[in-house]
Amino acid sequence: MPNRKLHYGWPLAVCAALAACSQHAPPPAPAAVPVEIAQVVRKALPELVQAVGTVEAIDSIAVKSLVDGQLLDVHAADGGEIRKGQLLFAIDPRPAKALLAQAQAALAKDAAARDLAHAQVERYAPVAKKGFISADQMQQYVTAEAAAAASVKVDQANVEAAKLTLGYTSIYAPMDGRAGRVLVQAGNLVKANDTNPLLVINRIAPIYVNFAVPGRDVDRVRAALAQGTLPAQAWVEGAASRASGKVAFVDNAVDPATNTVKVRAEFANADQALWPGQFVDVSMTLATQADALAIPVAAVKQGPDGDYVFVVKPDSHAEQRSVKVARDVNGEAVIASGLSAGETVVTDGQSRLADGTPVRIAQAAN
């Protein structure tokens, strides 16, 4: 019986000893989190002011008729390229030609009367000096000549007005540009100075972009403009290239309702990449910071206490650190404080990190 008790007690003692050992064993080390990294570098980066702008044609002309008549021909195409001096519309010229002929006939009649009156003055002037006709009668001849000459001047003005009206029956482009939709077709009657235009022409190249910058940046913008040409760039979201231009105008007051100031930039737009009415992104280069501390924007995260990054320490553990971002420039964040050149920051994988988490490098950012 004693041997049997010893036989059953031995396994129980071994199990108890193993359980006691398991309670004092250290927990397994957490697995390293794969992350992508980038180095904190010092580099020259521009100081930019960025905004959203609206493209506006430098010149926009509503083409209207200056005479009443029937529209005979339309020589402009919807959306077509327009050249200065190009014939756009032709209005029936026959009424204007008839008025011109009438004015010319009246001129010829009155010119003949003037010549007759002048001849009478020339004929009777010597006779009047000898006293063969009265002074009153001679004055009548002189007055008749002056009245006839005045009538000729009126007729000459009427002829010029009729020629001008005839010229209005052909409507030519006043500038280079791009046509909109032709609003009146051949065969319709048009009226002088109608409220509805025949066509609208916009000058596409060069072109304006209007935008607004915060009131806090006004002094910087004005100071940069005072140094000379202030470069500006504009691009449509998703476009592969950017249009280059210059600031042409800064408004003389800050709008108190929005605390912004209006700015206008001019672009050559030779390729017509910018189109009136478009919304575009705009940036102005105020200066260049030679030793900016830069990291990819993807490394910066926002928390309840502000911006922060994860720094990879030499022992391959992550350290969460607060930073102050001065500005973003083309996908890079300029760091005002919180980092030093040469440190390593995490650019991808932050969602799985906490302060002190071990990391392993999956791929270094270029």
Structural features, described:
This protein is of the alpha+beta class and 366 residues long. The protein has two domains: 27-58 and 211-366, conserved putative lor/sdh protein from methanococcus maripaludis s2 fold, CATH 2.40.420; 60-201, Beta Barrel (OB fold (Dihydrolipoamide Acetyltransferase, E2P)). Helices cover 27% and strands 38% of the residues. It has four helices and 22 strands. The chain has helices at 2-23, 94-129, 135-167, 218-226, and strands at residues 33-39, 41-57, 60-63, 69-74, 81-82, 87-91, 170-172, 177-179, 189-190, 199-202, 207-214, 231-235, 243-250, 260-267, 279-296, 301-303, 306-312, 318-322, 324-329, 332-337, 344-348, 359-364. It has a six-stranded antiparallel barrel. A four-stranded antiparallel β-sheet has the order 3-10-8-5, with no helix packed on it. Strand 12 and strand 13 (243-250) form a beta hairpin. Helix 2 (94-129) runs antiparallel to helix 3. It is elongated, with a radius of gyration of 44 Å. Residues 4-8 have low confidence and may be disordered.
